[in-house]
Design a protein that fits this description.
alpha/beta, 310 residues, globular, four-stranded parallel beta sheet, 14 helices, single chain
């Protein structure tokens, strides 16, 4: 059995996530303390006792989800499962940062600060209401790319997330994305759902955020990860710190090639994926990509103990 550790992206956040881990494992509690200290505020209080609207703000959700994933990693380590149990790590969008922190490439404190910067930069890159994203269900990537091209009409409209064979997300100018949703339905999509997001992520409109991240990443020490990262924008393994830095910048405006990333790991012998942190959205995508791949969630003390015995 060859395992990959995968880390969730935005949308997986819930009030109370990671609290049981922090109560059960001192090392997991230390992660939340470290993130609070790095940000100069009690993000953990927001995660465990706050309101979902505030937690869902991009600048909060991103470091919060990373903290929860890293708490789950510390719980696994307390149970005797180290990062070397995985052949690869990968993450969906912000989850790529969690993957790099888990693999020791970036410190937890630096990762928290980078994700706060990333969240603020992505939110401010496009005025609220001017951008949008829509999930196109039932068309493949090539079909959605054609839809986006037809819908653009001089505006930005791109395939942003290739999640699984049944779901591709488009991102860009609001009017163009709305046109894409209608065109997709005309072309045979089962559904086209406008997403409740505050900015059009992973498209050319995010260039100001990419510039901000280039500056932020230039000042951060990045080491070679303990196990290779399957990078979002390349859908292939990377271990070079300089390449990782460049790909994290490119990721802001580039597509999240999740379907291809999972296929690449499967082609390299991975048979089981452990979703480390909040929720089980990635497991759902992975099963749609390849029914033969096994999935396991690690988000609670019980999950960590069960995984150790696997």
């Amino acid at each position: 059995m060859t395992i990959a550790f995968v880390f969730p992206g935005q949308g997986a956040q819930t009030i109370g996530m990671g609290k049981a881990l922090a109560e059960a494992y001192p090392a997991a509690k230390a992660i939340f303390d470290e993130v609070d200290s790095a940000l100069g505020e009690s993000l953990s209080q927001l995660i465990w006792e706050g309101d979902i609207e505030t937690l869902t703000l991009t600048q909060n959700a991103q470091p919060a989800l990373m903290a929860t994933s890293m708490a789950a990693m510390r719980a696994l380590e307390a149970e005797g499962v180290t990062i070397e149990r995985a052949a690869f790590v990968a993450g969906h969008s912000l989850g790529e940062y969690s993957a790099l922190a888990a693999a020791g490439a970036i410190s937890v404190a630096d990762t928290a600060r980078l994700l706060r910067t990333r969240g603020l930069a992505m939110q401010s890159a496009v005025p609220v209401g001017e951008g949008a994203m829509a999930a196109i269900l039932g068309l493949d990537l090539d079909a959605v790319r054609a839809v986006a091209e037809e819908a653009a009409q001089g505006e930005v409209c791109q395939a942003a997330n290739d999640n699984d064979p049944t779901q591709v997300v488009v991102s860009g100018a609001k009017a163009a994305v709305e046109r894409a949703a209608e065109i997709a339905k005309e072309k045979g999509a089962k559904r086209a759902v406008m997403l409740p997001v505050s900015a059009p992520f992973h498209c050319a409109l995010m260039q100001p955020a990419a510039d901000a991240m280039a500056e932020a990443l230039a000042g951060v020490d990045i080491k070679s990860p303990a196990v290779p990262l399957i990078a979002n924008v390349r859908a292939d393994a990377v271990t070079s710190p300089d390449e990782i830095r460049a790909l994290l910048v490119e990721q802001v405006t580039g597509s999240v090639r999740w379907r291809e990333s999972v296929q690449a790991m499967a082609a390299k012998g991975v048979t089981e994926f452990w979703e480390i942190g909040a929720g089980k959205a990635l497991s759902g995508m992975i099963r749609k990509i390849d029914r033969n791949l096994a999935c396991r969630q690690v988000g609670t003390p019980e999950d960590a103990a069960a995984a150790a015995g696997a």
